[in-house]
Amino acid sequence: MIYNARDIELIGEKDFTAQVVRISWVILFLGILFQLIFFAEITNIIAMTAVVFAWLITTKIWLRKKMLETYLLSTFTIIGFASSQFFFPLLFTTIENKPLVYNLELPEQVFLHSTACLLILVIAHGIYRSLMETTPNRSFSILGKAGFFDPPTHLQLWIMGMFGMASSFYVYFTNPEIGQEITGSASDKLLAGLVPFTYAPFFIPISKLYGNNQKLPRGFGLMILVYAVLLFAISMARNSRGAFIFGLTTPAFAYGLGLLIGVFKTKVFSVRNFAVVGVVVWLLMGPFTDLGTAMLIVRGTRTDIPPAELIASTLEALDDKKAIEARKAEDKNESMDFDWDERYLDNIFTARFANIKFNDSNLITYSKVGQFDPDMQEYSLDQLLATLPDPIIKLFNLDVDKDLVLALSFGDYMYVVSGGYGTPNGYRVGHVAGTGMATFGWWYLALFGLVVIPIFYLNDKFFRRKPGLDPATVPPEERFQFSFCGVLALTTFFQFLLFESVVAGATYLIRGWIQLAVLYMLMFHSSRLISNVIAGRRQRARARLN
Q1: How many other β-carbons are positioned within 10 Å of the β-carbon of residue 264?
Q2: pLDDT by residue (tens digit) across 337-386?
Q3: What φ, ψ does residue 466 adopt, rounded to 5°?
């Protein structure tokens, strides 16, 4: 058979996802080999068996180009779940020379529940796909007519970034109490909701993913460098590690997703790619980890000194290598409270994507509470009601105190119910297995499956394929529309299924998705209006010069 240039290009596109799958299995094999040589305990072997089973399911069903092109974000969230609960824990514990079951008191239960949740996702996503295949495709949705899929221009992204940065200053520096309040004025909450748009300019280099084919403007490299330094300083002034972590991870996820669906093309094995991976690993394992530790060292003073002094203190702590190493050693040996331990991975960045000790801690707490606990059931209902806007709560005279309910995480509340003696408002991260068992018993799995089906549907609305186009003649970026709203929230979608409780999924359906979409539409149309005004002034200025 003779292939033309376009055929060869298409083969290369299809092969990239397959290459990623093959590489992931090589990494998995090497990690398991290391674990078997140095940590061959029976519980560790059982845990690794669960990882292999989970990754087999993930790569056979979801980590495929066709599935990604058809059900992009629902597939991405499941890949995120499988990576965070199975693949990444094995990878990162191996890198840190630890067993997979490091510091887990109930490892068998941890992997039993995670595997059960993954099997529920298999069933739920299968039902969802069947429903979508039997439902007529509506090509002109309300979102499409509202401009949800219109690609923002480069200027719009800079305007969004400026809005986000201004909101950060207002929320965290001018009125820092806003970031700490559970309830508050609608305007304050609106400004707090604009903060994630701070990262919008970082997506300009990958604008083809959301349908913008503009070329990079002159001087963009210098502009984004200055912007990144400014954002970096704001992160230190906020004493927030997550503020710059998400600024790095979300564009990386977006680029990776673009590679998987063929929008971007690259050779997997190249000197440049190995160099980029090497630099990223070095930054995560070295400078960024030290910076995060320096932030922890000065965290106790962040409410007592001005932002400029906090930045100076952070840089001073960063320069004291002995203090940083001492703090790292202290963090390895100390837990939050004597009866609540979150230690799993040493690296503060990888721990955000692979800390299954949260699963373990919640299951330990559940064992003290028991199934169908009435307090947990009442709190779960209160969490659901507290999601409603204040006017609706007052209109129906609902008996719920939002300030009291939302001040505690699910992990905090179950810890208190179990008789914990530590700080009640420590924002302990809950996990669906522990909180689910305490609230609903094993029925939490059925509820988990029921709640994720509409979530799959709504999240996939951020992405749609154009019907009737021939893949052999139309480039990938022109065969679909990907709303920038979905691109901007990719880190959130990657971690989406790590629910604190099935109630968290229900609250997203009631308010979270609507809030996300409406806020984006507000920003999109506002930035477009401002950019049109700026463009009009430029045209008039040119006309006067001519």
Answers
A1: 18
A2: 567 888 899 887 888 889 999 999 999 999 999 999 999 999 999 999 98
A3: -85, 125
